[in-house]
Amino acid sequence: MNVLFLTHSFPRSPGDAAGSFILRLARALGHEGVNVQVVAPAAAGLAAHEEIEGIAVSRFRYAPRRFERLAYTGNMAKDVASSWSARLALVGFLGADFIQAVRARRNFVPRAIHAHWWFPSGVVGAWLGSLSHVPMVTTMHGTDLRLARQVGVARPLFRHVLQHSAAVTTVSHWLSDEVRKLVPASHPIVAPMPVATDLFSPGGVREKGRLLFVGRLNGQKGAEQLLRAMAELRSDATLDVIGDGPGRSTLEEIAAERGIAARVRWHGHLRQPELARLYQRASAVVVPSTDEGLGMVAIEALLCETPVVAFDSGGLRDIIQNERTGILVPPGDYRALARGIDSVLESESRGRDLGRAGRLYALSTFAPESSARKYADIYRQIGGNAT
Length: 387
What we know:
alpha/beta, Rossmann fold, 2 domains, 8-stranded mixed sheet, 6-stranded parallel sheet, 14 helices, 14 strands, globular
């Protein structure tokens, strides 16, 4: 069975973190008899057609090279809202994505289309599905749902995509509930994306008092709350910050104001193998985000048997069972976050027990085989309606 993936984020090379869970799903689906081809946007230095880890990828150009900045930044919605050049690039993006998807449909002959994120891929998939009568699965990952909730003009388009989807999936129960609030007639299926169980595993020597944050440096990911919590800790724990974003300079100023600048290391983006080694060395991973679609960072940490302290928010509740696989604290309460971190750092045995229990849970729930089996069943159910 052939399935065409549409996505605005996909690894640009082996080990690239961008959309890596989509590549893992595509690879795991091969064991279920599902062949995947991917349509994704271009980026500097990438071939128009290539294979990444055995998965065929077609990349589309959507603007002059200096304006091709919508994809792979994690900031598409904000850029489009604030820049006319980005809005023009988005028009080109949708058109080029659709043309490339039509070509792929003709050559690949898929039995189903799988759009990752309702916008922009779900919009393009709805056009393609209507033209070719191929059923579509639309998966919500989190950032796309925030767009539908926060931008009023996006809601009719959101409903349009859902109406043209043969199946709608979300990566967490929280996202499923949020989709139903916007479109009560919808019936999302909870089907998480897979994690790299072969890459993220226990190993190495943990460094006492070493904390780790991984994520984009914006308000939603909560790095500011973590820095404030760092100043409240009963120990002189250090913090590794992995990721970048528009808020980095402000966060550096906050660290200096709070007197913790010397305890914070800023690494920028890292490839996944490097990230796995930092998980293995950390005493705890802190995930202070709110309204997280799922929380892949928390899963990756648990696979490395690293305890997680997180805000009790969004899809993180699907991963962290408080006091069993990690610590959950009230969202936005940095003092409670500090207390949660202290409770893990002050008892190595407690952190070890949380990490071990978390790994067992993550393996049973988020392994590639489990995700692939669920999605293969969905494709077969809707594929029977294809003409």
